[in-house]
Every structure is written in structure tokens, then in C-alpha cells.
Amino acid sequence: MIRYAAAIVLTLAALPARAEVDIQEVTSDSGITAWLVEEHSIPFTALELRFRGGTSLDAPGQRGATNLMAGLLEEGAGDLDARDFTRAVEELAATFNYDAYDDTFTVSAKFLTENRDEAVDLLRSSLVEPTFSDAAVERVRAQVLSIIRSNLTDPDEIAGEAFSKQVYGDHPYATAGEGTLESVAGLTRDDLVAAWQNALVKDRLFIGVVGDITADELKTLLDDLLGDLPQNGPALPDAADLNFDGGTHVVEFDTPQSVALFGQPGMSQDDPDFFAAYLLNTIVGGGGFESVLMQEVREKRGLTYGAYSYLLDKDGANIWMGSVSSANDRVAEAIEVIRAEWARIAEEGVTEEQLEAAKKYMTGAYPLRFDGNGPIANIIAGMQIQGMPIDYAATRNDKVNAVTLEQVNRVARELMQPDKLTFVVAGKPEGLEATSN
């Protein structure tokens, strides 16, 4: 839940100054809009659909419904059962993937130009005619329950769940989108149909398309594929009421190494100071081995294999969080070092040398990520859902390089809140003074 959202923010924030992509905005006859990058050198197309809402749309008492529904869209559609549907996809050499996350429901598809019409018809049937057969529901339910049981013994998952409960209170973000053993066991077919109807709606849809297809061909595809989806869905949840009490909370779990997550209020990606905040985070904990936390916690003291931080911009919450894992007898020291560095940087700021290194890190690596139609479709769909302009890829690095040391250090003073930096630890930490258990 947390990790996915973080990965999206990091990907979008790392866009290059001069990405070699020509993005067109295409609107179908029925009014469906997509961003398109034509690439005719290889005869296949990647399609990325993003529906805002995701697992946060689960009805009360039905946690896990959207996630379970996502696993069922390829388990039979129209007059095809699960086996026939899988066989049809394979015969077309196509790939379809359906996933549910905190704020989004995603559909990813790749198909050959020669099979485009048949692939689109098959994908359409999964979106508008899923069968939700009893056999498929029970089979996928068993798979989800197995994952939930496994998570109950995973320190990373335990820490993540506890952190979410601590920070998000009664918001849907507070519990895992997979649901609980009890909630998933109680889901009915009607619950799954309702989740499907709520999640796949056109007024919260963002589309990225890359490959061997023209704008006119895409207009037809959009109407054929998506024209029968409902226009509107239920209202999105209100913003979360965040609880960062500055304490250290421990969830006892018998493991030789404790996992600690930490966080404080963050910043929205549409804030004018976001690039300064992102550069600041790169220096603090997002810049690999050169970041302050890696140097202080790992390199100088050998307390962990890694300490990281990232800005997380969710639809209903903006937080700045991080993670560290350490042996039970050393995690208290690791937390102490992180708290000390957080307070020091908030007061003293960073140096020009650190800022220039962070700029180089942010602007240098991204072009390598444009390594295929699928990744590009994913990026441009993400740009839309984050509200970025269509020329963002071409202007992003200029904005990064325009950030000054004065601006970064002002943001450090204003954004970093050591008194609200809250830790949640899963394990059996020794010598750690906990706020609560």
C-alpha cells in the first residue's frame, strides 16, 4: 500500500528535462481523453488505464472488496470462463494486468498491431462483462487469504499496518487494501459487483497509450473499449486526519531484526516548493548511498543495510516517511541517529555541495527509464493523474536546476518537524523507550 504510492511519486518526480517523447492529447468522439506517444518502429501498443479511487472506495465492513475484484477480472468474462479467457489472451500474444492500490485501480495491456481489434474486444469484455463466477470467487479468495496469512508473520507488513493505523486513524488508508481474514471471508458476489461498478467509471479515468497506433485509431479504440463504462461513481473519501505524535510505538514480534517506519507531515506535489522539498529529501534519505541517513546510520555506524526516506503524495494525505531495519540490540541507536539528523538538518540546513549532488542525481538517471512502450505509458498516465501539464517531461529538469540553496534550507526549516517525527517499530527492540505498545 505505502510502497506502491511512494514508488509512483519517486518515478514522477524523477522525470528528465528533455525526455524524447512527443505526447499528444487525443479525445474520442464520445469525449474520452488519452495521452498518446506514437511509436511505429515496433508493431505493438501499450495501454495504461488509471481509475482514481482504488481500495479507498471499499464500503464499510467490506475491506478487500476492490482488491479481490481486481483479481477476478481475468477469471472469466462474457461467455468465456477463466480457462477460456486465459487461453484467448495467450493466443493473441497479449498481456492484461489488473491491480488495486490505495488511490487507484489500474489496468495495463499490451497487444500486437495485427491482433489489436481482437485484444481490445477481449479486454473490453473483462472490464464491462466480468462473470464473477462462484468457482472463480472462491479460488481467488483463497489466494488472497493466503497472502493475508503470510503478511501476519512478515515484520515489514506488520510495521506497515501498525504505521498506517497510527497515522491515518479511521480513514481507509489505515488498513491494508487486501482486507483482513474476517472481511475477505465475508465478501459476497454482490459486494464484488458493487466494487466493480464503483471503481471503473469514466469521470475518474486517466489513460496513457504508447506504440503503433495513430490518433484516429486511438479515438476509435477508446470508444470501443470504454464507451460502455458508467460515467460516475461514489464520492472519494475525505482527506485523512493525520496523527503524528512524535512518539515511538512498538509492536512486539519475535524476530532477530526490528523494522522501523517513521514519518511526519509532508507536501503535495502541486506545492510551489515541491521541487525544493524533493531535493531536500534526496539529500536526507532519497539519494542512495550518498544520502545523510545512509552515511550516518550505515556507513559511519554500521547499524543497518539501509535507511531511506521519501515524500508520499496520496489523494487524501501528504506525508514524509522512511524506513530502517536493524538488529534488535541496535535499532534504538539507529532511531536516535535518525532523530538527531532530522533535527540538525531542520536547524542547520544543507550545503551547496549536497544540493548540487542531489540535482545531478535527480536529473541524470531518468532517461534510462524510457526503455519501452509499457514504462512510457505508465509514466504519462501517472503524469495525468498527478495533474501535471503535458509538457512536464520537457520542463522538469529546468525547474529542478532553478531551485536555490536558500529555498531548500527555508523548506527544511518549515517542513521538517522533529517534534512530529513518529516511529513505529515491529520486532523486539532492546533499550528502546517506547511511547506505547
Task: Report on this structure.
By secondary structure, the protein is α+β, with helices and mostly antiparallel strands. It folds into two domains: 2-226, Cytochrome Bc1 Complex, Chain A, domain 1 (2-Layer Sandwich); 248-427, Metalloenzyme, LuxS/M16 peptidase-like (Cytochrome Bc1 Complex, Chain A, domain 1, 2-Layer Sandwich), CATH 3.30.830.10. Helix content is 43%, strand content 19%. The chain has helices spanning 2-13, 65-70, 82-91, 116-128, 134-151, 155-168, 181-185, 189-199, 215-226, 274-286, 292-299, 331-348, 352-364, 373-385, 392-401, 405-415, and strands at 24-27, 33-38, 44-52, 76-77, 80-81, 95-100, 104-112, 205-211, 248-252, 257-265, 307-314, 317-327, 422-427. The strands form three sheets. Strands 1-2-8-3-7-6 form a six-stranded mixed sheet. A five-stranded mixed sheet has the order 9-13-10-12-11, sandwiched between helices. Strands 4-5 form a two-stranded antiparallel sheet. The longest helix is centred in the first third of the chain and has 18 residues, at 134-151. The protein is globular, with a radius of gyration of 23 Å. The model is unreliable at 1-19 (pLDDT under 50).
